[in-house]
Amino acid sequence: MTDTAVLKVRDLKIGATIYPPGEKPHEIEIVHGISFDLEPGKVLGLIGESGAGKSTIGLASMAYGRGGVEITGGEVWVNGRDILQSRHSDIRKLRGGEVTYVSQSAAASFNPARTIMEQVVEAAVEQGKFSRRDAEGRARELFAKLGLPDPDNIGARYPHQVSGGQLQRCMTALALCPEPDLVVFDEPTTALDVTTQIDVLMAIKEAIRDTGVAALYITHDLAVVAQVSDDIMVLRHGDTVEYGPVDQIINTPQEEYTQALVSVRSIDHEEKAPTEEPVLSVRNITARYKGTKFDVLHNVNVDLYPGQTLAVVGESGSGKSTLARVITGLLPPREGEIHFAGRTLTPDFNARSREDLRELQMIYQMADVAMNPRQTVGTIIGRPLEFYFGLRGAKKRQRIIELLDEIELGESFMDRYPAELSGGQKQRVCIARALAAKPKMIICDEVTSALDPLVADGILKLLLNLQKIEDVAYLFITHDLATVRAIADNIAVMYKGKVQRYGQKSQVLSPPFDDYTDLLLSSVPEMKIGWLEEVIAHRKMESAGN
Amino acid sequence: MNPIVKLLAQRIALSLLLLLMISVVIFVGTMILPGDVAQSILGQSATPEALANLRAELGLNDPPVARYFQWLFGALQGDLGTALTSGQDITSAIGSRLSNTLFLAFWAALIAVPLAIFLGLLAVRYKDRWPDKLISAVTLASISIPEFLIGYVLMYLIAVKLRWFPSVAMINDSMNLWQKLNSIALPVAVLTLVVLAHMMRMTRAAILNVMQSAYIETAELKGLSTFNVIWRHAFPNSIAPIVNVVMLNLAYLVVGVVVIEVVFVYPGMGQYLVDHVSKRDVPVVQACGLIFAAVYIGLNMIADIVSILSNPRLRHPK
């Protein structure tokens, strides 16, 4: 044990009250005795899937428990004081002064009613570290250092007036403004587009280096944490799996779980050649939202072949979800036509036949909100069986069980409620509900984005497997290129409402690239130390989110 | 055009339209009441000729639509007609009554609104602890007890037993402000108790709703004191619902104080209205109805405008 450590955690135990459906609320332990040291100027990456306890540990370094979370045991030493023994007023001085926090969603973490500057300098002024004037000067320096445009005036803006990537930089400025000794970064780039992510990541990395602050960097993405950390701690279910220097974790992982994380995306999918007749042809689609004056889709043309997958890939605002809305008839296009299974679809879904509705199903990103929380899994899957096929009683039950077997859950899930399922299981139920209609095609809108990598991997494997059995085509909307590689036969790269690049997977993902596709492909973090600097040095084009 | 200007213009236009519709409702409503004004003025023993003469004189034989527009244009020019029973000009009679009512409402609001918001903030600060429970219990009790009862109890304790303030809230133009305030102290106290609970509970609920937001956690992690977190970060984002309930209660202070005015014999609009309803003095009832409606709609319009202005996205477009 060294005495220079900024943060010293010993045998940290954290509990939470849970409210399982149908049972009495009770206490469980979610972090079981974690220990680590953090020296000044060093970065420790905390990595794990959701539920691993990484955010909880990060917040514990500020003696903070989110919701019903409570620190139940152990020691947390900050600058030589055990903060778990400190008085409330001392903890308040610690928060925002010695230790600061950068959250995942800057958009939600900035108060919409106050200017950025007011919020950036608030902690520094409140804690008596700087006068208001000095704090504002420091904030402007930080804005410039973090690469924000117009650093002298951006502080006067309100949070909704800047982009997501910019706001995340502002949040970093907020954390660095009081000259803290430790910053807790909690998934600071997860909500950003992939091309924006590397700019913000670079800005954070340089800011950490220049200010000499120590940092806890929390993320689920091992490739990201490999770029910024000195040490990495791999967590699972509240236990340490592996803890060591970044080089050792990335290149010679000892534990099986770490190895799985390092080599995730094990799917190897051979692309299929286009068959003669596409099941879906999008022809010359141009669309805009009601009440706006600009098109969000410009002359889009893509084809989807039976039993194949077309991946529509792009960043937020590229028009990929709008395309799904046009195909499903939620947003009738201004121009163009959609041919589906040999007929032309009516633009508005209200006028479509039940057959059209049945053959075109959808799976959503947020499985939680796509299901009625008061219906059992059986009812949810049974509904399309009743609605489209008039199945009742034993026949319906029989079919539900078949579907549950197909999604690898089994009959025992029939009477469960969505709240009793994990994220991956919920998404499986949504897949079964879509399949129940026996569709020719399913639109999958970011279906794995909200899931942990290993769980997402399982869902992708299931989807590929089901495609073979049911001969269903997928229109797969995603921002994640690794997912595209795993599942696509054809790819459409979208940028600012246009199809930038389109063709078979091998073609689209092989050089020569256009500038945007190149930017997009090169921005996907690689599990390689020093990758970040390399890619920044070789960039041809600025990312859109800045 | 700036979207906020457009929104505000829409809001104001809508309010005026609503007021026009209400004026129709008031007019039609008073028309379909049973009974005949001429009959009630002249009494049961009136001769048919006298009744016919009076009807012609009052314009009761004109078609209703013509009478409505006559009334409406008169009202727009500040002429609310003449009271049937006294022959007095309604506008001048209402004028002094209305200013008395507004005087009472103003002082009640001046105490009740800041107090309610402060208690609401306090209840959030000590959520689920004894101050919160005490505030909730007391304000709930005060809203649950009929206001006339509170009025009489206060009158008995403070005016009769302690002799601090007069029991009858008479005011007139010869009194100075201090004398007037002394006179209305008791009705102001009762009104404050009556409207406090609504506003305090809405403030509490609106702020607690905002307290779930991620930016509240950010503020807590800056080491701000709980009260600063509430005041600087939660309150500015819960203004819209709070203002709405405040305005509803202000409207109540103006149009709903009939009982209190009667209890304290206060010379305000409420008493005036009650007197003339019992005498079936239709023009006075119509005039009071119109003024009450205008107050209600006007205050709610202000609430809408404040809600719109409190939204930073509208105030500072991209």
Automatic annotation (TrEMBL), chain A:
**Any idea which UniProt keywords this protein has?**
ATP-binding, Hydrolase, Nucleotide-binding, Transport
UniProt KW Hydrolase keyword: yes
Q: What Pfam families does this protein's entry cite?
A: ABC_tran, oligo_HPY
GO process terms (BP)? peptide transport; transmembrane transport
Q: Does the keyword ATP-binding apply?
A: yes
| GO MF entries | ATP binding; ATP hydrolysis activity
At the top level of its lineage, which domain of life is listed?
Bacteria
Which enzyme type, at the first EC level?
A: hydrolase
Membrane topology annotation: Peripheral membrane protein
Could you name the Gene Ontology cellular component terms for this entry? plasma membrane
Give the location in the cell: Cell inner membrane
Question: Do you know which CDD domains this protein is assigned to?
Answer: ABC_NikE_OppD_transporters
Domain (ABC transporter): give its ranges.
Answer: 7-262, 280-521
Q: What is its EC number?
A: 3.6.3.-
What protein is this chain from?
Answer: Glutathione import ATP-binding protein GsiA
Species of origin reads Tritonibacter horizontis
Q: What is the lineage of its organism?
A: Bacteria, Pseudomonadati, Pseudomonadota, Alphaproteobacteria, Rhodobacterales
> Coding gene?
gsiA_2
TrEMBL record, chain B:
Which residue ranges does UniProt annotate as crossing the membrane? 12-33, 102-122, 134-158, 178-197, 242-264, 284-309
Name where it's found.
Cell membrane
The chain positions of domain ABC transmembrane type-1 read: 98-303
The scientific name of the source species is: Tritonibacter horizontis
Q: How does it sit in the membrane?
A: Multi-pass membrane protein
Q: DNA damage among the record's keywords?
A: no
> Pfam families, per this entry?
BPD_transp_1, BPD_transp_1_N
Say yes or no: keyword Transport present.
yes
Return the GO cellular component terms, semicolon-separated. Answer: plasma membrane
User: Entry's InterPro entries?
Assistant: BPD_transp_1_N, MetI-like, MetI-like_sf
Family listed:
Belongs to the binding-protein-dependent transport system permease family.
Gene responsible for this protein: gsiC_2
Sorted alphabetically, which keywords does the UniProt record give?
Cell membrane, Membrane, Transmembrane, Transmembrane helix, Transport
The Gene Ontology terms for molecular function here are: dipeptide transmembrane transporter activity
Q: What is this protein called?
A: Glutathione transport system permease protein GsiC
